[in-house]
Amino acid sequence: MSAQEAGAGPPAPEPDPADEGDARQPAGTDESAQEEPDQRQNAWSARRDLVNHSPWNVTGGVVGSDHHGISGGHFTGSVHLGSKTEVVHQYQFGGASASHSSGEVPATTLERLSARFVTGGDAAFDALAERLRAERFLVLTGGPFTGRRTAALMLLHRLGATPVRALDRETRPGELAGRIDTGGHLLCDPLTRRDRPLREAHLLAARERLAEKDAYLVVTVGPTAALEDITPAAWRPPAPAAVLEAHLRAETDEETVRQLLALPPVTGFLARSHQLREAAAYAPVLARYAAGEVDERRIEEFSQAALESQVQEWFEQDEESLHLRDKAFLVALAAFDGGPYALTAELSDLLYALLQKTENPSRAPEVPVFGTHVGKRLQLARARRYEEEEHTEWGPVRQLKARYEDDRAAPVLLREVWTGHPSARPALIAWLRRLAGDGRPLVRTRAAAAVAVLAYADLPSAMALVIEPWATADRFRHRLVAVNALALAHLIGAPNVPRILDAWCESDDQRLCWVAIRTHGLTGPARPVETLAALRAAARHQDAQKDPDALLTAELAESVELLLLSPAGDRVLAELVRTMHDDRSVLDLAVRGFVRACDHTEDDERYGRPLVLHWYARAATGHGPAAHHIAALWRTALGDRAHTGHARDVLHRWVLAAEREPSVEWELAALLPALVTTASEHQRLDHLLRTAAGEDGAPPPPVAGRLLTVLPRPSA
User: What is the residue range of 209's domain?
Assistant: First the structure.
């Protein structure tokens, strides 16, 4: 390993993520995994990828910035997993079975629906009724749980077509005419296939029978129904707020309705894009709350319960209702929520193939190349698409993205699949391992985030089946995903992560030790004193070895570097200065990490404002102790034979930055006097400024001469 990698010289150029693996290879193939070079990504670059690609807006940063770090234990947004055993079974949301039952619909049901039905406030419903009256049949299309069945019943009710009979959805299209009798008929989501579509000829034959019996027929279909020569009428559902209000009016008086709709839990519920069936089910709970029969907790937890019920319903449905490929997409979207749609679709098909292998190991997986519709697929998933910039190694790129309408859906879904369907674990684990070996930082980061949610829900299983195998892998790429998974798990509140890291820091397995040290740099801002104590212990352990591990020594310095450039920087700085003279290994750890931190600039620009220099200027202006600590570490670094070369190189780069930016010159002019307390320190800085070459070997820049004038001349 080079001196630079070991922390004794300037940080090596960050490896281009594109060089870490050929992203053009099919994601996750064993061949690509074996051929891709495996390089250690430095901690600063890895943290930048983690922040850029995490599904959560992680807060914290670099000495007052919000761009470079994770603030231990705090993040923007929430990870809501809920409590499915306590909540979800207390409510009934109306599942798919209600739409598929057959037989006569009771008149009382029709009257009850009529009293609560919302047409949408325009003439669209009236137009549908007139079309049904004229043609005798109507094919009504819409997304799942948008009120299509209720709308169909109300259309028949509007025309006075009684009694209303619900036909079995397994009725073949050619059998429709033979099922017609007097009154109204409803066929919900008939089982059609591409080789057995619902054709116009079937409906024309049924219309003759309908006319004979003075009857009417409404067929409801979903977005993916197989139709031939039929132009369905689109059902435009009302807003959930209108449905909730209508149902409340049927339960209580106007004043109570107004008060209930103004409650924070209710406004929060309506802001979540809930389905109409969920809004309808909420009304009786609110009415019971108004009557004093249930407490406020029940109306607060209803929204989460509705979400959990939907997620459970997705994975309880059979293949006829929800295909395995669609279920794989739901899982992939949970992992890549808010990510590029094309990437999500690509990797969902990889999961689909692995799930097929689990279901039938003897059969080769089959993944259709075409046949999916983006809009219909997202509608089924209760998700939306939008355009947004995505961070890439080539800069921001505008991409088409997809995310769940409810920001709580992704973690709830991952929890449900992991804990509620253990037979899916082998495929899910294999899929996550493929993602961890992918050449794209976004893919690896999302794999880590998904595992963090699994660890939050079930730490022992996630550790044993996923995180520990990654942490003990020989490839740096897999170990880094383990680092990110542990860091994010700690961030969202998974238990015992610090205990795991402390134990691994003392492990004889150098791979576990590497993972722990790297993770400490990410989670340490939440407990800086304890983290630095663990890093010092690891440094002493390495120093005591006959042949110290240069890789771990480098990791220790890089973790200190990250901790310094974190929201806990002031505390870290004070702790480094307090302990750096305890012994040689601790001094080396502190100085290496400090000088590495000094080499970073705003936005990682080559001649940007140095972050630590700006930190010093702010601290000096406010007479904060950080200014004295920064100066003390600089004097130690410049005066130590093992570190002076690296420190001089960094200070030289600060001089070049000062030549380009006046504010940097002013800040450097404020720092330099604090670095001179002895004649030798003056001589060292005087020589550096007089001999500092300009760019490309040019003579010393003019700013070097100006900075010479601020150096004090201490007495001998």
Answer: 119-234
